[in-house]
Amino acid sequence: MSKAYETVIGLEVHVELQTKTKIFCSCKNDFGASANTHTCPVCTGMPGALPVLNRQVVEHALAIGLALNCDITPVTKFDRKNYFYPDNPQNYQISQLYLPIARNGQIQIQVDAGPRIIRIHEMHMEEDAGKLLHDEWDDTSLVDYNRSGVPLVEIVSEPDLRSAEEVIAYLNELRTIIRYLGASDCKLQEGSMRADVNLSVRPVGEASMGTRTEMKNLNSFKAISRAIAGERERQIELLESGNTVIQETRRWDDNKETSYSMRSKEDAQDYRYFPDPDVPPVHIDQVWVQRIKDNQPELRAEKLRRYKKEFDIPEYDARILTETKRMADLFEATSSLCHKPKKVSNWLMVETLRLVKERGLEAEDVNFSPAHLAELIDLVDQGLINGTVAKEVFEHIFDEDVSPREYVEEKGLKSVNDTAALEEIAKEVVAKNPKSVADYQGGKEKALGFLVGQTMKVLKGQGNPGMVNEILRKLLS
Fold it and tell me: Where in this chain does the record put each Asn/Gln amidotransferase domain (predicted)?
């Protein structure tokens, strides 16, 4: 009979920071530029070029460390991590081993089984490597050094995670916190957030750790989930057949849904770390830390607590709205203008997120003004436009940020609220549809809906549905 196994997972999450320039030089820190156009002697490792630390990198790292409940290291230093690879022009990476900027943190995640605390071992600053571009057709590899020297923080968790569900919840929580801080856009598809998964298995109830492997090349939550399931199964099969798991780095191929060995997994001594002589230590006093604390934005957990007290909306709405700072900001600003938080929530959760998905965007890309959404909600409440017209107008607000009042006037979309005019059209519809009239008078309520629809059709969607319904009921009684 086979044993039951427990999965033990620790994550190394690399996050590229949003700064104007790279960590040790003045080259632009922009994604998507032509290959090797944002380079200089420093980030391409030319002899004699000296690095100068970007202060904004330290401030972003401090903000993240504080938000992750970490202890801040008063004197933090940089080290050289030596390895030889084509995307690493210096043959070493400037990183932090001995005195990382933050340690001993934790965050809370929410999974189906309830809340869980995940401990964070450390967070350190470092420079990113270049990017290898492989051309399988020509059997060649080219190097783009634009990414070389891009500032990173690496967040290393303790091995507290036990499933793919917990891993995704942890990554989502990290991403939300970092985006709220404005420290990174955390786009997995662009590589500004990358996760390496350290995974081992052990029989349930056993205290000692199994042999871990590290999986790289994971650029989506779906790929991470599949990689965890695949590696867990591979390790269990090895152990069940009497073999041993080898400590190694593996690359996940999401198309083939399998992993393959890249190299044996290095330990710290393999990189021959030593203090970088060119980058002086960074002294972080309490005044600096307090200034960063004072400038921290309200994070999601705090917003959720406040929304329960301040706005009369369900907890489900609050969770959706606070997933991104952009949506939360839109909700608060619009509600302060029209004082109708539930209606604002509905427009953001339903129509806004629908259009975000249809346009292939992210919530952060939404750029219409709260004033225009508040104006639209007021137009509907005043009966000047109906729900169908409002949805049409909202698409133009979403795409072009038009003034809804001006758009409605220009396109002649105001609702027909003239009772006499509506009665005349309703009488014509009743006269043309005797069967539906008889059905309604015979007790078929659905027939009224048909007659309302026909009346609205004549009105080209610009009738007041409530008034049309009331007038038809009166005529048919």
Answer: 329-476
Cβ–Cβ < 8 Å for 355, 388: no
CA dist list (Å): 231 to 14, 235, 381, 456: 21, 6, 55, 59
Check whether 476 has a pLDDT greater than 70. yes
Least confident of 45-54, 205-214, 432-441: 432-441
Q: What are phi and psi of 393, to 5 degrees?
A: -65, -40
Two tokens at 412?
A: 């002649």
Q: Specify the pLDDT at position 259.
A: 86
pLDDT of 386-408, one tens digit each? 888 899 999 999 999 999 999 98
Q: Which residues pair with 81 in a beta bridge?
A: 93
**CA 24 – CA 55 distance, rounded (Å):** 10
CATH number of 419-476: 1.10.10.410
Identify residue 172 by its one-letter amino acid code: N
> Which own/partner contact pairs does 345-353 have at CB distance under 8 Å and 24+ positions apart?
345/311, 345/313, 345/317, 345/321, 347/373, 347/376, 347/377, 347/394, 348/321, 348/373, 349/317, 349/320, 349/321, 351/391, 351/394, 351/398, 352/327, 352/398, 353/320
* 274-275 vs 5-16, strand pairing mode: unpaired
Dump pLDDT digits (tens) for 55-85: 999 999 999 999 999 999 999 999 999 989 8
Look at residue 421 in the predicted model and tell me its pLDDT.
Answer: 61
